Fold this protein.
Amino acid sequence: MKIIIYGINYSPELTGIGKYTGEMGSWLAQQGHDVHVVTAMPYYPEWEVHEKYKGKKWHTEVIDGARVHRIPLYVPKEVSSAKRIIHEFTFILGLLPVWFSFLFKKKADVVFCIAPPFHLGFFPLIYSKLRGVPMVSHVQDLQVDAAKELGMIKNKTFLNIMFSLERFLLKKSAKVSTISLGMQQKIASKGIKAENQILFPNWVDENNIKPLPKEQSLRAEFGISNTDKVILYSGNLGEKQGLETIIETAVHYKDRNDVYFLIVGSGGAKEKLEQMVKDAALTQVKFYPLQPYEKLSALLATADAHLVLQKKSAADLVMPSKLTGILAAGGCSIVTAEPGTSLYHVIHEYNMGILTEPESATALKNSIDLAINSDLEVYKTNARKYAEMMLSKENILKDFENNLLSLN
């Protein structure tokens, strides 16, 4: 097949949506498909264009057999709701010449469009209708719902317009895919029937991300002994997670020199978190940059417990992408999730982590106390088994490929 993939994030971004879209594009190209990706300059989660791409304009490169068409865009240093909207619209306007060129090239067999941003779908949809090509809309985050629930956008008229546009795009798509049962239910509430949906969960390469002993972790590199207790948060430092709770909780361990909180990643909330640590004079909270993919197993092996945090209002609107790697590495997660959400259900049903109340430093402290004073082997064993059984990269992408083939 000739497949056109639209998404604002792509490889070589190390985390979030770009990681999964990049792996998908490479995998499809390796199966012999003619893959074209329309994407931005890599910038996430640092919110800064990667050094290699600074100053570049529209250009095409080949990554693992996929032809990647890069588009320049505005990337704000400090992220706000208004600046993020401008950021997304500069990308959408910038893709016009690339989109136009596709109209006069060999017709694609399928167009795959990834949200967020949800409004990216309009150009692919027009191409779909003009060329008679099925379009699949893939929802990684329910962006408009999250913006409403998190209070990022408060203008009701604007929100209603966005919800209407989102429903229009979803209903005009041949299929709508998303990453969890909870998100499928949310999409169904927007008028998309079950037979028009595809479950396409995030995956993990369980052969590359695997359990390692502490001796092969990054503890020595970080100056931490193997007898110390390590609580790790790794990934995007954004607004959806409620990461202030980590610092509020760490204050309770201020007098313990054997408990460390590691925050590995970057994002819009990093400076705020660093200031909180400074104001509280916390010496056992350490910040590190994102680690390269080849060190991911070693990073994950550094932790006694992993933090998978979300705000209450983000329940079933986003699914933490970091969880797949933690499970594959046989890690024990402390997960903030409420009963009734997909995240709570899967952790509880397979007994592979400690569930705790979102946005509560007290509840998080109790869960950390439980983790550092308990034998966590049952959770860790179950986590690895679940990754092998349910999250295998090869199995998930093969099923997805079959879904694309069935559209033609």
Observations:
- DSSP finds 16 helices and 14 strands in the chain.
